[in-house]
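The instructor's notes for this session suggest beginning with a concrete chain rather than abstract definitions. Hand out the sequence below and ask the class to guess, before any prediction is shown, which regions might be ordered.
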Amino acid sequence: MTMKKIDEYISKITDGRDTANVQIVVVDPCIEPMQFTTHFPEWEEEISQQWLELDPYEAAMKKIEDDKKAALAKVAAKNEVTYSEVTNFLPIEELRKGIPEGVNPAQKEQYLSDDDFKSVFGMEKSAFNELKDWKKKDLKKKYGLF
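After discussion, reveal the predicted structure:
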């Protein structure tokens, strides 16, 4: 609609200019040249930035999407327990009989002390963590931690 309005304005010029030679300059928001802003003595850059802000609906949708991504990242991080994060080691018998409170059921083995881990699996935790997922799963099944 902008060009239609410009054409209407030019067609109504009555000051004697040749309407075929009127120069049209397109000014993009927030990168207005000084030659443009000097015509507006009260021009404020901060105000012009508001033109680029998302409308309220788009802003709300973006916030929902960002919150969703943050929540998914938090859940993923919570489910990935590493040896260095575990501070409450539990005996093998307790881990075999169920899922104690605060234990990630997919990584029960990480809650064994170093000595218990080595006596059960016959290797260090670092070596176990290097194994392929299918191999870890088979070992956990074999020793009752799956």
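Then share the key points. The chain has two domains: 1-53, 54-146. The radius of gyration is 33 Å.
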